[in-house]
Specification:
Elements lengths: L1 E5 L5 H10 L3 E5 L3 H11 L2 E2 L3 H5 L4 E4 L4 H9 L13 E4 L5 H12 L4 E4 L2 E2 L1 H6 L3 E5 L3 H11 L3 E6 L5 H30 L3 H8 L7 H11 L9 H18 L4 H15 L12 H4 L4
Parallel strand pairs: 1-2, 1-4, 2-3, 4-5, 5-6, 8-9
Antiparallel strand pairs: 7-8
Length: 290
């Protein structure tokens, strides 16, 4: 297929690379053109100087940018992708954004005969690099069937969860669950250190039981070594949790634990950890006051 990929950040850069390596014809766009130049040098394909030029004549347009405003700009702003997409083309937004935006874009694009799916991802930078992301999608099954060969290039699992907006709602649940798990792990490891337990031996043991999780398996070593300069940034997690908390107010959900952990991430930001990995919640105990 002819594919455009808009947004070459830590997630988009490798995702677009997987699509190109799978044999699709990929044109990329990034606000910082040097990043697009580097991508073309590494993977081949072509680059464009605007989202509209990248999307022109494409079967599938993929977006992975920062937030709602960024998505609006690259889709319906001046020189946005929607201005050149043809009838029957499909736009998939992999940005973690609001469900309201997804529904709005679905309405705008469907009136032009353009398919739309919101498809936020889970798996982090490592999942993007390894082509092993989980993609939660909102949209039409027919659009999903057409675009699945492209989505499969960078995912290990993807699923349509209902109409446009449901992908974003699913990602909110994903982040709500992660927030509670990481806080529990931070408290547990701090308790272990205060009690004089061997952290490595402890995790080797309890990870084989009901307490085991992806976070425990993949983050305990770096947490024990007080290393956080990698991974999914606290700034982005707070953005995601803010979206979830706003949605909870709208639908009447109670998220007391999420509110609490969000405030804890605020403390990490105040410590200068906005770009630290989300597992840095442990620093509230180990670095505070130092």
């Amino acid at each position: 297929m002819k594919v455009a990929f808009i947004g070459l950040g830590v997630m988009g850069y490798p995702m677009a690379g997987h699509v190109q390596k799978a044999g699709h014809e990929v044109c990329v766009y990034n606000r910082t053109q040097t990043k697009a130049d580097a991508w073309v040098a590494e993977f081949g394909g072509t680059k464009a100087t605007s989202p509209a030029l990248a999307a022109d004549g494409c079967d599938v347009v993929l977006i992975c940018v920062g937030n709602d405003d960024d998505v609006r700009e690259v889709v319906i702003g001046e020189s946005g992708a929607a201005s050149t997409m043809g009838e029957g083309a499909i736009l998939i937004d992999h940005t973690t954004a609001s469900a309201t935006l997804a529904k709005d874009l679905d309405g705008m694009l469907s009136s032009k005969g353009i398919g739309f799916m919101d498809g936020p991802v889970s798996g982090g930078q490592a999942g993007a690099v390894n082509g092993a992301l989980t993609v939660m999608l909102g949209g039409l099954e027919s659009d999903y069937a057409k675009a699945k060969p492209v989505i499969d290039c960078y995912s290990r699992f993807s699923k349509i969860l209902g109409p446009a907006g449901n992908g974003q709602l699913a990602k909110m649940v994903n982040q709500i669950c992660i927030a509670g798990i990481v806080q529990g792990l931070a408290e547990g490891l701090n308790f272990a250190m205060q009690a004089g337990l061997d952290g490595e031996a402890l995790v080797e043991t309890i990870s084989k039981g009901a307490a085991g999780s992806w976070q425990m398996e993949n983050r305990h070593r770096t947490m024990l070594s007080d290393s956080y300069d990698f991974g999914f940034a606290v700034d982005w997690m707070r953005k995601d949790l803010g979206i979830a908390l706003d949605e909870a107010k709208a639908n009447g959900s109670s998220l007391p634990l999420t509110e609490l952990v969000d405030s804890f991430y605020g403390e990490v930001q105040q410590m200068g950890g906005g770009r630290w990995d989300t597992s840095s919640l442990l620093t509230r105990y180990t670095r505070k006051g130092k």
